[in-house]
Design goal:
By secondary structure, this protein is an alpha+beta fold. The protein is built from one helix and four strands. It is globular.
């Protein structure tokens, strides 16, 4: 099980669909633990919306049995 953040409504909607229909999805998101944007693949277990006041990465996603591919790194400084 992996947790990551998505920043756009389309990605959040794809995650909601995956959760609601037990359907595998591939979506990019930010791993807050290492600051890298990765592609996550699997079935979403939960989607939490931190609301419009959240900074750039608004939705936290939990995905099961994911395969992860690193895209790029970000610095949080």
């Amino acid at each position: 099980m992996k947790r990551f953040y998505v920043r756009d409504k389309d990605s959040a909607n794809a995650c909601h669909y995956s959760r609601d229909h037990n359907f595998p999805v591939a979506v990019s998101g930010l791993d807050a633990a290492d600051g890298k944007v990765k592609i996550y693949r699997g079935v979403v277990q939960s989607v939490e919306d931190y609301g419009p006041s959240a900074r750039a990465w608004r939705w936290r996603v939990t995905i099961l049995d994911s395969k992860v591919t690193i895209i790029r790194s970000f610095s949080f400084n």
